[in-house]
Structure formats: C-alpha cells, structure tokens
Design goal:
The structure holds three protein chains of three kinds.
Chain A (H helix, E strand, L loop, with lengths): L1 H16 L19 E8 L5 H17 L3 E8 L4 H10 L7 E5 L3 H6 L16 H6 L1 E2 L2 E2 L2 E6 L1 E6 H7 L7 H14 L4 E4 L5 H10 L10 H11 L9 H4 L4 H9 L3 E7 L3 H5 L7 E4 L12 E2 L1 E7 L6 H11 L2 H11 L2 E2 L2 H10 L4 H8 L2 E2 L6 H7 L2 H10 L5 H17 L1
Parallel strand pairs in A: 1-2, 1-3, 8-9, 11-14
Antiparallel strand pairs in A: 3-12, 4-5, 6-12, 6-13, 7-9, 7-10
Chain B lengths: L3 H29 L2 E2 L2 H4 L6 E2 L3 H7 L2 H34 L2 H16 L2 H11 L6 H6 L10 H30 L2 H9 L4 H29 L3 H6 L12 H11 L3 H28 L5
Antiparallel strand pairs in B: 1-2
Helix pairs in contact in B: 3-13, 4-8, 4-10, 5-8, 6-8, 8-10, 9-10, 10-13, 12-13
Chain C lengths: L1 H27 L2 H4 L14 H9 L2 H32 L5 H13 L6 H10 L6 H26 L2 H9 L4 H30 L2 H6 L9 H6 L9 H35 L1
Classes of the chains: A alpha/beta, B mainly alpha, C mainly alpha.
Chain lengths: 415, 291, 270
C-alpha cells in the first residue's frame, strides 16, 4: 500500500514535470525597446465605430509625424471575444500588442495574469481621483483611464409627446410606460432590453438593494424579476429580445424601433447616426422610489501597455497622446465618451447639456463589479447573461436561475 | 522492393508527423486534464499542481456537462442518420434518371460540398434571419426567431450540416453502385427477383465496404461539428442551449481559462468516439469484411 | 416513371443549389435591397459594391492569399507523405500492418478541436504562434490520416506486375516509386487532395487560436467573421466574402470531379 502511494506520488511528480511549459511574462525591455517599426494597438470595436476610427486615425497621423520611421497597426477587437484574444497575447509574449484598450472590469483578471505594465510614471496628474482608482489594482496603476461611461435612460421625445406620456419617475413607471407605448404603437418596443445586456440589468438589481455577490437574496431577485418582466411580449418579446446584446439595443433605439433604451453617453454618436437623431432626450434611470436614481454601473475603458510589449517607450508615447486632453475632447465630440481628465471633463460639462444626466447619475452613486481576478471568468463564462436568458426564455424561474448564478459566482470568486 | 525495411522507411515521414502533432498532443491533453491548469499557471508564474481526477469529478458532477453530452450525442446521431438517408436516397435516384438531370444533381451536390463551413453557416443564417431572411418572408413568419427555441436552432444547424455532408455520401455510394456489374443485377432480375429484393439482397451486401466507410466518416465528422454551431448559434445559443462538447470544451479552456477542465472534456469526447468506432469496426469484422 | 424521377432530381438540384444562389445574389444586391423586408429572389440592379467594400476596406486579398498558401502547402506535403505511406501499406505485408491501419483510422477520430489546448502550448514553445507556418504544420498532420486511408485504394488499383516488371528491368526502388507508381496514382492524389484542401481552407478554430495579433497573417474565415458587427451585420459584405471564399474550392472540385467520383468508388473497392 505504502509502495503504491509512493509510486503514485512519483508518477504525479513526473507528470507535473513534463506539463506544458508555463511562462512568466518577460519584463518590459529596460531600454524601452526599438524606437522605430510598427506599434501594435488593440482598441475595442463598437456599434458605429466610424467616428472613433476617425479620431484614432488623426492621433496616428500626429504620432507618426512626430515619430519618424514608425507606423501604427490598429486592430479593433470584438468585445465579446476579447477575453480569448487577450489571453492569447498573455500566453505568447511574441504575439502581444503594445497598447491596448480594455474595460475597467477586466483589470483584476489581466493584472492577476501578469499581463499589464505599470503606467504610474506616464499618467497625467490631472486624472480625477475616481478615474485613477478605477485603473489601480493592489496599489499599482495598470492603465490610464481613457473615458468614463455610465448608462442612463434615452427616450423618444416625439413618441412621448404624441402619446401624452410623462417621463417615468420610478422603475415601476418605466415598465408601465414601456407597456403603454407597445400597446398603442405595436410596431415599437417600449424599452429595448436584452438578455445579454448585463449592464442594463444590474441597475435594476442594485436599485432593489441586491448585489452581484448575493444574487440569490430576495432584493436581488426582485430586481432581476423587474428586468426580465420587460422581456415579455407586452414590451420586448423574448423571440426578439432574449439574446440581444447591449450593442443591438443601441441599434434598436437608434434606428427608431424602440421608444426607450438604457444607453451610455458613449452611444451618442451611434444614436445620432440613426433615425432617432434629434428626437430624443436623456434622464437618469430612476430608482425604486420617485426622485431616486438607480445606481449605474461605473463603466469605463483604460488604455494600458502590455508587459510583453516590444516597444514600451513608443507605446508610452502613443498612449500619452491618445489619452491627452486633446484627444479625450475629440473622443467626446465623436462618440460622447466622458473624459477622465478633470480639466477636459469640466470643459465638457460647461459646454454641453447632454452630459448632465450622466453626471447626475455619477453623482447619485455608481456601482462596480467585484474587484477580483475571478470576475473575468464570470464574465467570459457568460454567467449573468445566461441567468437572464434562462428566465427570459422560461427555462428556469428567477429562483433557480439566481441560485445557479450565485453558486457559479461564489465558486469563481473564492478561488 | 519487398523488404520490410523499405516499408518502414516509407511510413516514417508520416509517422513522425503524426507522432509529433497527434500522439504527443494527445498525451499532453491527458496530462493537462489531471492538472490544475488555469491562467494563473499559464502566464501568471504560479506552479502547476497535480490534482488527480478532480477535473473529471467536477465535470461529471456538473449538470450542464450531462445536458451538453446528451445534446451532442443526439445531435450527432440525428445528423448522421439524416445525412446517410438523404445521401443514399439520392444515390439510388441518380442511378435511375437520365443523363442531364443526373449531371445537374451531381453538380449541385458538388457545389454544396465545396462551400466552406463558415460560408455555408453564414448563408443559412441569412436565409433564416429573423427580419431579413428569405424563408421567414416567404412563409410569412414575421419576426420569428429560429434560434430562439433549442430544437429549432439545432434543426437549422443540422440542416446546414446535412446540406454540406450528404454529397460525400451520395457520390461515394453512387460510385459504389455504378461499380457493380450490370450483369449481376440482370441475373437477379432473370431469376424473378423484384427490384426491391434485388436491391436489398444483392446490391446492399455488395456495397457493404462502401457503406462502412461512409458510416464511419459520417460519425467522425458529425460528432466533431464545431464551425456550424459556433458560427450559427454564436458560440452555443441562448443560455448555452445549443452547446456541443466541442464548443463547450473550447469555451471552458479559452474563454474561462480552465485549460484542465477543457482538456478533460476533450478526453471524454475522444473516448466516446473511440468506443463508437471500435464497436462499429468489430461488427464489421464479425461479418467478415476485410479492413 | 422516368420522367417523374427526372423532374424530382432537377427539383432537388434546385433546392440544393439555392443557398449558393442566394449567397451570390445577396453579394451583388445593392445595399437597399439587402435591408429590405421584402426580399426578392432576383435583382435588377446588380452592383459590385459589396465586393469592393470587402476587398478594399478589409485587406481581404491578403487573407485570401494567406489561406491559399496554407492550403496549397498542406496539400503538397500531406499528399507526398500520404503517397509514401499508402505505398507501404498496400505494397508490403508486414507484421502490425493492420495495427497501423487501425491507428490511422483512430487518428481520424481524434477531435482535433480538443487538441487545440495542447497544440497551442506546443506551437507556442516552438515560437511559431502568429505565423502561417503554425497552421500549415497542424493541418498537414490533421489531413494525413484520411489522405492515407483514401490513397490506399488508388495505389492498390495499380497492378503489382507493373512495378515488378520495372524492377526486373533493373529500375531502382526510387525510380519505381517516383517514375512508375507516382504518375499512375497522381489522378487519385488529385482527388484526395480536395479533402486536404477543404480542411485547411475551412479551418477557423486554429486560425483564431494561433494567429493572435499578426493582422497580416489572418486567414479568410476569421476575416469573414469581422463583418459580424456588434450592431448591424453587413450581410452584403458577409455574402460577398463568403462567395470569394467559396470560389477556389468550387473550381478545384469541378476540376477533379470525375476523378473524385472514380476515386471514391475505387477507394472503397480496394
């Protein structure tokens, strides 16, 4: 018996010994790497990307003009498969891009994977404290916040006027208003919601007092029920809405097929490019009681430098340029992205009434996903969308779906 | 030229390639499946740990795995049966029609066969698109989402699979039937056998080796379908309802960074395929077919 | 009776070819008609806009060449290796011959998708990630077992007496192999290579896993998926790209059609 155990242990040792080699990311080249050549940049693909692309092209032109012998290869990464791409880049140092845009929710996972370089030395001192905090993990600044994004309630002023509707003051009123619109105008969705649109669902949960980490609690269930009740034929039929992503709801609202949508400041360009242009207004998404605001998800994207970057010095220059006040303001004009630099933010707030509902939403208090490397797994494993879709398609009750999700989230976070 | 030595030399290059890119990775697959192997190990510099059968027990204790397994087997079986039925029926039809229709049908089949899986998937998606799809507009199913229901989604993916896979069966069986000397069939007819009996008692037995290949290949191909599911249902459908083992393993490994768990799924899948094929090979041997 | 069957065959042919027709049609439809809620099965204003969009904006030509290069290299290498192995397995009787045959069959059964995980690490350790070479390497391996399996029939169909006679005339083994057997098997090789070609051409799993950041080394299937947008799918471009992707395989198929039919029949007679 003892012998057998010993053999097993020995076997285990040999097995482990010849497992695929693992790699710790090589440190950043201390000399900053080559100063010429092609800089590889990954940015997020978005609904209606053209305005973003245009601004980025300007930045690239300015950069290559001031850095002779360089070119910039910008790739737009699909958001829903970004996790695989980033991990591929972490796993193979030779393939890594230099500068990356990443969502602030991905920070803990990427940090734990050892993929991002410390950018504390190049970050602008003018960054708002909130923004700086959102890119800091365990005391290290692993990205320069590029823009903030919060979602609020977009609604069609012409439809509301025609039907004599009031702007809803509570979440319950949002639902009743949405149903009224659908009844009176069956060709429209009342409020565009989607099974894959987690960031529209979470405010419902938060407003009812639930948390991501206790989805099987009564308040969280009430919130989820309120959201999934919207994916019904009397507002947004599950046939069409159960698998919608946030991007698709943007498209529905922009093309005039929905009377309301929970969209971000960064979706402004997409909406203005569609049929809804000039016929909409924005208010903070109301909470459970009148006068309150449903806590929004404090979204935002950072620009980071990969630890595996081959041209970190060039990368730092390009990042600084793209995150500068000038291009933050350009990105605001192009996409509606809220600047992270205090000076740029103040300027924008002073000039443009469009940002007010978003700033109000931020002032009312925002929420964030758990700051834990396990979150990336929950996100990539589509735990929350699966939960919503199960309820929306009637495959599970709110109780079953939340219990499953809570279990998966617990398992991922405690690791 | 008949020395064993030469035979080995001739086999060597192929064997080397297969050893390096099949046998070794298979060994590694088994290895990773008994390790705690996640992103922290791969790039985070953490040591790998031998966890024995933990990944397997986790897998077997997971309700979703069983549901995915069941769906995979059911879906593959349906695809194999449908492919064989359609292919065989059309092969027989080919032997019965005039030259021009035969040419047209075989050209159409060749064309369907030639369409790459990704292109084929996108075309079927477009044909059945909720709003812009020709099929919905033709049938007046305004706003009907084929990918909403689990079974309609599987059926649609299955149709795309059969459409791409039946030509192989049809062409092979047709070639097999054409190779049967006409005199055999005529002799049977002279003996007074009906067409139906002649078919089952003479043609089918002569086709058995061909059928064997066609069946094995169909099982192998259909069980491993990845592209159509991945592209058409966007990586597994609503709430993962259209996941098959292949896609599930891929997502566990590359999306959730559970390389160990993903490998365990791969091992399970390989074992199932092996069992099915070996079983089939044995029945073939029993019935006296040479390999 | 025959007329009924003829009509049936033609009707089925039409149904089978319809998705392909629809693909090409959608590729040449003007944008307005694609978005229409009343799709017509024809178009009166064909336009090449979608093709232009695909070719100009997205560097599709480059990806096309990449795919072609990968597929051709795979076809060539796996063809030669399979030919040698098939000769060994049909012209020689040795112990373990059946075992080797069964192993090749088993190799076909391996779900290569499951091997993505170890192969990813293997290719990474070779430093070959992000290169077209990595794709050539794995697809050569994946196409070999089936190619060997199928080529056996073609080699067996060449009468033994032929190479025996040549050998009696004093021809070396090498000559017998390349000057006598190879040309006779070549038509079968062409038929076999269709399968290798399709396999390499179709792959999108390894392409998406191995080609991480080298845009210049993307292959067609990945490039095609780029047109699936977060908001509105550009169906015209998707269909144009699909059409472009289908063309070479279609041409290849039609070229070797007769041999393919004969080959499949021959391979199974064995």
């Amino acid at each position: 018996m003892r012998l057998r155990l010993a053999t097993a242990a020995a076997l285990a040792l040999t097995l482990t010994a010849c497992a695929p080699s693992t790699s710790s990311p090589s440190g950043t080249p201390s000399d900053g790497g080559a100063r010429t050549g092609t800089l590889k940049v990954w940015l997020f693909d978005e609904p209606n990307r053209a305005p973003k692309e245009k601004v980025v092209q300007e930045a690239v032109a300015e950069f290559t003009a001031s850095h002779p012998g360089t070119s910039v290869d910008v790739q737009y990464i699909a958001v829903d498969t970004r996790s695989e791409r980033f991990k591929g880049a972490f796993n193979d140092p030779g393939s890594a891009p230099d500068v990356v845009e990443y969502g602030n929710t991905d920070l803990p996972e990427y940090a734990a994977a050892g993929g991002l370089a410390d950018v504390g030395a190049i970050a602008d001192a003018d960054l708002t404290a909130d923004a700086r905090a959102s890119a800091t993990y365990e005391g290290t600044l692993l990205g320069v916040p590029w823009y903030l994004g919060v979602r609020a309630l977009y609604y069609r002023t012409d439809v509301f006027q025609e039907l004599g509707l009031k702007v809803p003051a509570t979440l319950a009123e949002v639902t009743t208003t949405a149903r009224t619109i659908r009844t009176k105008k069956p060709e429209l969705f009342g409020l565009a919601v989607g099974g894959k649109y987690t960031y529209a669902a979470m405010p419902f949960v938060w407003a009812h007092g639930g948390e991501i980490t206790d989805l099987d609690s009564a308040p969280a269930r009430a919130g989820l029920r309120a959201y999934t009740d919207l994916i019904k034929p009397d507002n947004c039929p599950p046939q069409q809405c159960a698998d919608l992503t946030g991007g698709k709801t943007v498209d529905l609202f922009a093309s005039g097929k929905a009377a309301m949508g929970i969209l971000g400041n960064f979706n402004r360009a997409a909406v203005d490019a569609g049929a809804a242009k000039g016929k909409y207004a924005v208010v903070p998404l109301p909470g459970v009681t009148a006068g309150s605001v449903a806590p929004a998800f404090a979204g935002g994207n950072n620009l980071g430098i990969m630890k595996n970057a081959q041209r970190p010095a060039l990368a730092a220059d390009f990042l600084t340029l793209l995150a500068s006040k000038k291009y933050q303001a350009r990105m605001y004009d192009a996409m509606g992205n809220l600047p992270t630099l205090k000076s740029a933010s103040d300027e924008v707030a002073g000039q443009d009434p469009f940002v007010k509902p978003f700033l109000d939403t931020i002032a009312a208090g925002t929420k964030f996903v758990p700051l834990d490397p396990g979150w990336g797994k929950i996100d990539a494993g589509a735990v929350l969308p699966t939960m919503i879709e199960k309820v929306a398609t009637g495959k599970a009750t709110v109780e079953q779906a939340t219990a499953d999700a809570a279990q998966q989230i617990d398992a991922a976070l405690t690791k | 030229m008949r020395s064993r030595f030469t035979a080995l030399w001739l086999l060597l290059p192929a064997a080397l390639v297969l050893a390096a890119l099949f046998a070794y990775p298979m060994y590694q697959l088994g290895l990773i499946s008994v390790l705690d192997f996640t992103q922290a190990q791969v790039s985070g510099g953490q040591p790998t740990r031998f966890v024995g059968l933990d990944n397997y027990t986790r897998l077997l204790g997971d309700g979703q795995f069983w549901s995915v397994l069941l769906a995979t087997v059911g879906f593959a079986a349906a695809c194999v049966i449908a492919t064989l039925a359609v292919g065989a029926a059309l092969a027989v039809l080919l032997t019965r029609v005039s030259r021009i229709p035969r040419l047209l049908l075989s050209l159409a089949a060749m064309a369907a066969w030639a369409v790459p899986a990704v292109s084929g998937s996108t075309v079927w998606m477009f044909l059945f698109d909720t709003d812009l799809g020709f099929v919905n507009q033709l049938l007046g199913l305004d706003g009907y989402n084929w990918f909403y229901g689990r079974y309609t989604a599987f059926a649609l993916v299955g149709a795309a699979v059969v459409w791409a896979a039946f030509p192989f069966v049809m062409v092979t069986l047709y070639a097999g039937i054409s190779a049967i000397p006409g005199s055999v069939v005529e002799a049977a007819a002279l003996d007074g056998a009906s067409t139906w009996r002649a078919f089952w008692q003479i043609i089918v037995p002569m086709l058995r080796p061909v059928l064997a290949i066609v069946v094995i290949q169909s099982i192998i191909w259909d069980f491993k379908i990845f592209t159509q599911i991945y592209v058409m249902t966007r990586g597994g459908g609503l709430a993962g309802q259209n996941l098959t083992l292949n896609v599930y393993a891929y997502q566990q490994a590359f999306a959730s960074s559970e390389y160990g768990l993903g490998s365990a799924i791969g091992v399970v899948m390989m074992l199932i395929l092996l069992a099915v094929t070996l079983l089939y090979l044995r029945t073939l041997r029993r019935s006296g077919e040479p390999l | 009776m025959r007329r009924v069957l003829d009509t049936l065959a033609v009707a089925i042919a039409v149904v089978v070819v319809f998705p392909i027709y629809w693909m090409v049609l959608a590729a040449v439809k003007p944008a307005g008609e694609i978005q229409s809620l009343h799709q017509r099965p024809w178009t009166l204003a064909p336009s090449l806009d979608a093709f232009r969009r695909v070719l100009a904006v997205n560097d599709f030509g480059r990806y096309f060449l990449n795919s072609l290069l990968v597929a051709l290299v795979v076809v060539a290498i796996s063809g030669v290796l399979a030919f040698l192995a098939a000769v060994a397995l049909t012209r020689f009787r040795f112990r373990l011959r059946t075992t080797v045959l069964v192993l090749f069959l088993v190799a076909q059964m391996v779900p290569v998708e499951a091997l993505t995980i170890p192969l990813f690490f293997l290719v990474r350790d070779l430093g070959a990630l992000n290169t077209l070479g990595s794709l050539m390497l794995v697809h050569t391996a994946f196409t070999l077992p089936f190619a060997i399996w199928m080529l056996r029939g073609f080699v067996a169909a060449v009468p033994d007496e032929l190479d025996e006679a040549a050998q009696l005339d004093g021809a070396s083994r090498f000559t017998v192999l390349w000057r006598i057997l190879f040309p006779l098997v070549a038509p079968g090789l062409a038929a076999t290579s269709v399968f290798s070609f399709i396999h390499a051409w179709n792959d999108f799993l390894f392409a998406r896993t191995f080609i991480i950041s080298a845009t210049g080394n993307q292959t067609l299937p990945m490039a095609l998926l780029v047109f699936f947008k977060p908001d509105q799918n550009d169906w015209g471009a998707i269909m144009a790209a699909s059409t472009l992707m289908t063309l070479p395989v279609l041409v290849f198929f039609l070229l070797v059609r007769r041999r393919l039919v004969a080959g499949l029949g021959g391979a199974v007679k064995d």
